[in-house]
Amino acid sequence: MTFSKQVFDAYEQKNYGNYLWIQQYKNGKKYWEVPPVECEVVKSDGTPPYCHSEDEFDEMMAQYYMDVKN
Question: If 0-12 CB within 10 Å is exposed, 13-18 middle and 19+ buried, where does residue 38 land?
Fold first, then answer.
């Protein structure tokens, strides 16, 4: 199973965030304990901070939207 999210501005053709998780067993961990393959959100200042979970990705995207609105 694969789960992904992408935040993309269709008008400006800009990518603002990617999240990719692939169900896998790694080093004896259960699949839900394995971190995402890709997790990054481009902040309003242009720096690409990396995240480590879907919840963290969602929080960073919410913060990004708050920064853009203000």
Answer: middle
